Amino acid sequence: MDALALDALRAEFGDRVQFGVPLGASTTYRVGGHCAARLFVGSVDDLIALGQIIGRHNVSVVTLGKGSNLLVAESGFDGVVISLDDTLSGVSIDGVTVQAGGGAPLPVVARRTAAGGLTGFEWAVGVPGSIGGGVRMNAGGHGSDMAASLVSVHLVDLLTGTESHRSLEELGLGFRTSSLKRTDVVVSAELKLIVGDRAIAEAEIAEIVKWRRENQPGGANAGSVFTNPRPESAGRLIDEAGAKSLREGSAYVSSKHANFIQVDDGGSADDVVKLMATIHALVVERCGVDLRAETHLLGFTSQQAIAAGALLLDAEHDANGGVA
Which of 111, 176, 182, 292 is catalytic? Predict the structure, then answer.
């Protein structure tokens, strides 16, 4: 990023913008390099002002939620990473309608709605992402997903500096995908749930948490690495391909669940992407299935992304996708 762009960010946002931030520490992998600038935004006006700066100076920008499906290259990202602050992370309930800020953690929304006697969002307690990332990825699990309860979203397009509201039908939600552009920021989402029994909803949440603890590894990982090529299981295919015991430097396939990659303390993101590529190639060769990664990449080369079956967030073209 050039000096003029850095000066413009500093002039507009003051000490709210930080430079040379170790971005990997903000992801659940806890590895990776720095970003040129990091900004927490608290209003639509902030987003519009940022959009004007990135437009004038041709600056790359990505939105970071909870960092639960992002892998940052050790070489870092020469752009602006934005996150929504607490002002845009609130949750309010009116009858069966829930308004949730784009920065609201999915597990918080799940627990708040269950406590309010609503059902239909319990599944989200096991997804360590944000509402904005959940919409972008159509996050899901345990038999449900965002599309099941989403009504509409409030967006700001950083590319044009414009606000819009889109209905569920206009979001193009599919299996772990949407039609949102990289420059679309989810400011808030409206959900419609169902009146239920608080005790039953909270018991379901407890059961989901228990199941995840028993069946999925903890530590430094980003959850499922590859999407399930329905009706098949990515974890089963990886195991069948003989990849469950693989290690690449500091990164290794979890012995608890083959679709999870773990990283040693002080490990390298570059080891993770190499392991993703090896797994991807083995499953193609031995099972004939071209797995697609849920984990998104930032700061890597297009060749590395293709080999790993992953979306490169800072690609030259404006690809669909985003971070949770």
Answer: 176
Furthest CA-CA distance within the chain: 57
Q: What is the spatial distance between Cα 71 and Cα 24, in angstroms, rounded to a whole number?
A: 7
Check which CATH number belongs to the domain holding 284 and give it: 3.90.78.10
Look at the pTM and tell me if it is higher than 0.85.
Answer: yes
User: Which of 224, 250, 254, 268 is an active site residue?
Assistant: 224
243: nearest Cα among 263, 229, 261, 265: 261
Per residue in 20-73, pLDDT (tens digit) is 999 999 999 999 999 999 999 999 999 999 999 999 999 999 999 999 999 999
163 and 109 housed in the same domain: yes
Task: Output the pLDDT for position 92.
Answer: 98
Asked if residue 211 belongs to a domain, the reply is no
CA distance 52 to 44: 13
d(CA 98, CA 110): 11
313, part of any domain: no
Residue 322 covered by a domain = no
Distance CA 230, CA 243 (A): 20
294 labelled catalytic:
yes
- The CATH number given to whatever domain includes residue 148 is 3.30.465.10
How many CB atoms sit inside 10 A of residue 304's CB? 18
* The pairing of beta strand 296-298 with beta strand 70-72: parallel
Number of domains into which the chain is organized:
3
Show the domain range for 261. Answer: 217-308
* 224 belongs to the catalytic site: yes
Write out the H or E segment, with its range, that includes residue 135.
helix 131-137
